[in-house]
């Protein structure tokens, strides 16, 4: 049996808003949005990994607040676990330093305005429930019709593997 490798995701919160980060690489994920984070290194706790990843990826000082319920499957053997995080007093504003080309603060009404990576969608829905006290499923995708009249493949299911940062 293969041992799970934990990938940590940060639900960075400030002023009632959630931070989303747009991937710049790899090519198949570029332009899609995610919760920032990355792999837990051997001997590292998930909480320490989050603090390290946020410093490396966004240039911020942060503290982990609490674990968001759930565990989200990525490509084997990776699994995503998410924590709420707040920026420490005196921390710089987040910058897109590594793996991202844009950042966006989202309110509860805006959380589905970005094209989240497939594996982040259930995690973001759970974050919305925990943070804003409501279940906030993503809106359904419009179903375009091809020239043959058949719907094209679902874009949300085309890259279920996702990136491992």
Automatic annotation (TrEMBL):
Catalytic activity, as annotated: 8-oxo-dGTP + H2O = 8-oxo-dGMP + diphosphate + H(+)
One Gene Ontology MF term: 8-oxo-7,8-dihydroguanosine triphosphate pyrophosphatase activity
Keyword Transmembrane: no
GO biological process, alphabetically ordered: DNA repair; DNA replication
Keywords for this protein: DNA damage, DNA repair, DNA replication, Hydrolase, Magnesium, Metal-binding, Mutator protein
Chain segments annotated as coiled-coil in the UniProt record: none
Cofactors required: Mg(2+)
PANTHER family to which the protein is assigned, alphabetical: 8-OXO-DGTP DIPHOSPHATASE, NUDIX HYDROLASE FAMILY PROTEIN
Family of the protein in this entry: Belongs to the Nudix hydrolase family.
Protein name: 8-oxo-dGTP diphosphatase
Lineage, uppermost ranks: Bacteria, Bacillati, Actinomycetota, Actinomycetes, Kitasatosporales
């Amino acid at each position: 049996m293969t041992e799970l490798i934990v990938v940590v995701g940060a639900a960075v919160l400030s002023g009632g808003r959630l931070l989303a980060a747009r991937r710049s690489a790899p090519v198949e994920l570029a332009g899609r949005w995610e919760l920032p984070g990355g792999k837990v290194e051997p001997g590292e706790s998930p909480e320490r990994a989050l603090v390290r990843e946020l410093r490396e990826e966004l240039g911020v000082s942060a503290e982990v607040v609490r674990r968001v319920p759930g565990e989200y499957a990525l490509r084997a053997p990776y699994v995503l676990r998410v924590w709420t995080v707040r920026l420490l007093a005196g921390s710089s504003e987040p910058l897109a330093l590594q793996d991202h080309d844009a950042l966006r603060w989202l309110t509860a009404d805006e959380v589905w305005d970005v094209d989240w990576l497939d594996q982040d969608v259930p995690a973001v829905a759970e974050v919305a429930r925990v943070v804003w006290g409501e279940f906030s499923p993503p809106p359904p995708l419009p179903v375009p019709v091809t020239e043959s009249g058949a719907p094209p493949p679902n874009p949300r299911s085309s890259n279920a593997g996702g990136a491992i940062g």
